[in-house]
Amino acid sequence: MTTATTTKTALTVSETTLTYLDGTGRLTALNQVNLHVTGGTIAAITGPSGSGKSSLLAVVSTLIRPDSGRITLQTPDDTVDLATLTRREAAALRRSSIGIVFQQPNLIPALTAVEQLVAMSHLGQHLFTSPTRRRETYTKAMELLDAVGLADQHAKRPAQLSGGQRQRVNIARALMNEPSLLVIDEPTSALDTERGAAIIDLILTVARAQNAATLLVTHDRTHLHQMNSVYRMTDGTLTLST
After folding, report:
1. Hey, is 220 helix, strand or coil?
2. What DSSP string describes 138-205?
3. What single-letter DSSP state applies at residue 231?
4. What is the pLDDT of residues 141-183, one digit of tens each?
5. Residue 232 in contact with residue 46, Cβ under 8 Å?
6. Fewer CB atoms inside 10 A, N or C side of the chain?
7. How is the chain split into domains, by residue range?
């Protein structure tokens, strides 16, 4: 009798190296990096500025192709080596499977909170979607705004929202396409302690609820005890903290 196996979501970074041209030589941003994060868990990345944290997020998000190594995203439907994708394939995968929360929300000034999410859902799709599809998208956007505590602020534009509210819209937007991989860069850097703690709690809740493998870059060490694993980046080298 054969026992069926269930493929789980996971991100695996194996022996990944990234270098940049620096004058006549090359600067090593990532040096043989190894990392593993399963769905529903959060790996925090700490380290000084310029140590390679943002470079790691960039290669994992398919925004930059590494010089060598494998970056495998495993989902119940497929397993993809992110390091081998073409630009078009990478862009399509970001739309369907990768949620990115930038340090600054980068919301579109003219759009309301709910419109920010709806616009994300329509990226790469035909402009003229059916009325049924538009209603479904709007309903999902409102559900996500409700999940981050902003349903009553759905009609407000970014200038009418606080910094913490804008970051919550940013997180909800990243979840619009139900990503398997969630990549978050310094989400609390512009927030006070109370709002920062609320954002971390929100990230913990949604990452687990969405079963997303999550990478979180942070300088704030007060939240590290809440993470499933903590790594430190130093001069391009990543080590697991104990």
Report:
1. coil
2. HHHHHHHHHHTT-GGGTT--GGGS-HHHHHHHHHHHHTTT--SEEEEE-TTTTS-HHHHHHHHHHHHH
3. E
4. 999 898 888 999 999 999 999 988 998 899 889 988 889 999 9
5. yes
6. N
7. 10-240
Please give the Cα distance from 161 to 159 (Å, whole number): 6
pLDDT digits (tens, 9 = 90+) for 36-89: 999 999 999 999 998 999 999 999 999 999 999 999 999 888 899 999 999 999
Instruction: Please report, as a single letter, which amino acid is at residue 239.
Output: T
| SS3 call for 140 | helix
Q: Which amino acid is at 93?
A: L
Contacts of 165 (CB under 8 A, 6+ apart): 113, 150, 153
Report the C-alpha gap between 162 and 118 in whole angstroms. 21
- In degrees and rounded to multiples of 5, residue 75 shows phi and psi of -130, 170
Handedness of CA 32, 238, 240, 179 (dihedral sign): negative
| Fold of the domain spanning 10-240 | Rossmann fold (3.40.50)
DSSP letter, residue 49: T
CB-count exposure of residue 242 (10 Å: 0-12, 13-18, 19+)? exposed
